[in-house]
């Protein structure tokens, strides 16, 4: 059976994505590498990996019934994953509300037989890939406040030269 690579993420508004693209431009002066396309910038909440098509359909159908308690992520620092040669933007510390959203999401996914990663949650927005230097992070631009009220379920398709992301469902914002 065919498998689909899926992940849940926070997706920035176009304005926030444009600001983050500015961060990427600045970071590239120090770390080199290849900037992510502005319209692909995101913060992964849960990476599911390849999931069979029937389960993917089930998750896409169930996601609009999920609620994500609204919250805010302060984007205030650059970080480097040296082994993966990634430069990212993220919070100084994981906000408690975001950690709770991550934990709750994985608890729900457990009901579908999916297991959380062993590594701790490291919320980040990948800005550059294949960085040519792995200097420790320098001071980032002025912080950005990311207010979120929903998550999206994304299918990732591998193409030569990168991935294409397709949003297949989103959670329902809490009204009021
Ligand atoms: P990255 O940006 O740090 O590479 C789609 O690939 C999204 O899922 C990206 O945000 C990517 O994080 C994340 N991702 C890919 N493989 C992953 C893995 N094995 N564990 C956790 N997240 C992963």
Give a structural overview.
Strand 9 (152-159) and strand 10 (162-170) form a beta hairpin. The termini are far apart. It is built from 3 helices and 10 strands; from the N terminus they run E-H-E-E-H-E-E-E-H-E-E-E-E. The model has no long low-confidence stretch (mean pLDDT 95). It is 24% helix and 35% strand. Strands 3-1-9-10 form a 4-stranded antiparallel sheet, covered by helices on one side. It is α+β, with helices and mostly antiparallel strands and 176 residues long. It is globular, with a radius of gyration of 16 Å. It has a single domain (3-170), classed as Cyclic Phosphodiesterase, Chain: A, CATH 3.90.1140.10. The structure holds adenosine-2'-monophosphate. Adenosine-2'-monophosphate is lined by residues 7, 44, 47, 86, 117, 126, 156. The site of adenosine-2'-monophosphate (2AM) has 7 residues, from strand 3.
Order of helices and strands: EHEEHEEEHEEEE
Structural class: alpha+beta
What helical percentage do the residues reach? Answer: 10-25%
CATH topology: Cyclic Phosphodiesterase, Chain: A
| Overall domain count | 1
**Strand residues, percent:** 35-45%
Given as residue ranges, the uncertain stretches (5+ residues, pLDDT < 50) are none
Give the neighbour order of strands across the main sheet: 3-1-9-10
In the CATH hierarchy, what is the superfamily? Answer: Cyclic phosphodiesterase
> What gross morphology would you assign?
globular
Radius of gyration: 16 Å
CATH architectural label:
Alpha-Beta Complex
DSSP, total strands = 10
